[in-house]
Amino acid sequence: MLKTVALTPADFNRWAEHMNRQIAESGRDGRPFFSPMEAIEFASIERRARFENGLAKPVFEPTWLRMWAIEGPDACLIAHLDLSGSNIPTEQHRATLGIGVEEVFLRQGYGRKLMVQAIEFAQHNHIEWLDLSVFSENKAAICLYLSLGFEEVGRRNDRFRIFGRSVDDVTMTLRLKG
Ligand SMILES: CC(C)(COP(=O)(O)OP(=O)(O)OC[C@H]1O[C@@H](n2cnc3c(N)ncnc32)[C@H](O)[C@@H]1OP(=O)(O)O)[C@@H](O)C(=O)NCCC(=O)NCCS
């Protein structure tokens, strides 16, 4: 199995390359959509600033960020998971989670490996809730989240129209304490 690495501000370029590859797979060749963006470029000045600033902040400081990735051949990243804190100071007991594995590496346990690592990090840092959004058609992701104890807490039908197709958005959350 390939190894997990915790990303640092120096990893921006290889992270952006992976994100560009991975998000381009959304809705491709009959796969479900998993991103609301029809076109996106991750290697931008704004994203670099958010990446570098967020990773440098302590957990619980608004807009903090932590990322883990699976390192593939040639030090390329093939999967990522990000945890981020809100920009609102009164929401710092929660974190928002995002995840993606490149298609060639699906169903090899990397998604679960990253999720378990993020949950352990959150527990260790006394974060009390993990939140995420997932499209209702994304059965693979929903199965993974349900298997780890996430519950559906809300749904916005017809939230996005991606290339003209209506997509329902589900909010899921995991209670870590209490
Ligand atoms: C969701 C995702 C992260 C799962 O990653 P993965 O590495 O393929 O998942 P794993 O191999 O670790 O499998 C973990 C669990 O996910 C679920 N799962 C994964 N693929 C599945 C599929 N095609 N159908 C049903 N369940 C699936 C299963 O519960 C599986 O557990 P099991 O192997 O014990 O049955 C991956 O499909 C992905 O990155 N998709 C594209 C991006 C995306 O959807 N991101 C999430 C947006 S909210």
TrEMBL record:
CDD domains, alphabetized: NAT_SF
Tree of life domain: Bacteria
Domain named N-acetyltransferase: residues: 28-177
InterPro entries: Acyl_CoA_acyltransferase, GNAT_dom
Entries under Gene3D superfamilies matching the protein: 3.40.630.30
One matching Pfam family: Acetyltransf_1
Entry keyword set: Transferase
Entry's Gene Ontology molecular function annotations: acyltransferase activity, transferring groups other than amino-acyl groups
Name this protein carries in UniProt: RimJ/RimL family protein N-acetyltransferase
